[in-house]
Write a sequence for this structure.
């Protein structure tokens, strides 16, 4: 699961981030959020864009669908806002929301079948609320944990592969340039899957943290000048961690 240094939100409140800014209710003694993905789970990365005037549809979805997912051991457990203009790519979601399901990819597929059986209008109702609902699934065989500071810059970069050899060379150079430029790699994930109808499977995803905007801007200039011959597509977003409520 994802665990905050501050008191976590309840499940429905976290998914309500798709209708309102993500937030955390706690004392803001340390401006950090710690995320822990546990082994033996499939993690959902949901990139969501909510349609206007859908609060009632969302509330009904939370009551009927999210509650059913929780009964199937789904845990909606936090994420980030995406409220700054993306630096690369053609997508501008509002939020990145994390969730976890117990087991492996087969267990995840079985859980989706159970959810579809319980709520036959599942996919239709999602489109009642969100204009984009992109999903990456990652099967974890080891724990992954990272901490971000809310006074720094967090960036998610997703790359799709076009040519394996050139892509691997590109990723090695990308990672080396990020580290040399002062970026701290907080999370690196590969081997994605997506359910049918929700395809969003970049072969390489990272979350990096930067001390300030100038440091990231200097890296971005180098990043854009790299040889992208082995890369099919990219999305790159600023991530805004949840902050305590006043």
């Amino acid at each position: 699961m994802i665990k905050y240094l501050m008191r976590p939100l309840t499940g429905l409140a976290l998914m309500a981030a798709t209708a309102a800014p993500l937030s955390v209710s706690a004392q803001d003694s340390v401006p950090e959020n710690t995320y822990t993905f546990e082994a033996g789970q499939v993690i959902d990365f949901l990139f969501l864009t909510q349609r206007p005037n859908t609060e009632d549809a969302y509330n009904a979805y939370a009551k009927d669908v999210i509650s059913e997912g929780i009964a199937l051991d789904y845990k909606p457990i936090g994420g980030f806002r995406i409220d700054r203009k993306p630096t690369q790519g053609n997508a501008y979601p509002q939020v990145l929301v994390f969730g976890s399901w117990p087991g492996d990819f087969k267990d995840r597929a079985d859980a989706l079948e159970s959810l579809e059986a319980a709520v036959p209008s599942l996919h239709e109702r999602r489109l009642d609320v969100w204009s984009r609902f992109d999903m990456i699934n990652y099967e974890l065989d080891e724990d992954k944990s990272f901490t971000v500071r809310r006074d720094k810059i967090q960036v998610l970069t997703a790359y799709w592969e076009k040519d394996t050899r050139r892509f691997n060379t590109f990723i090695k150079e990308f990672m080396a340039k990020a580290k040399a430029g002062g970026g701290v790699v907080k999370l690196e994930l590969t081997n994605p899957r997506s359910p049918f109808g929700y395809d969003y499977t970049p072969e390489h995803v990272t979350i990096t943290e930067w001390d300030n905007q100038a440091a990231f801007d200097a890296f971005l200039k180098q990043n854009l000048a790299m040889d992208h011959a082995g890369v099919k597509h990219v999305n790159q977003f600023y991530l805004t961690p949840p902050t305590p409520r006043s």
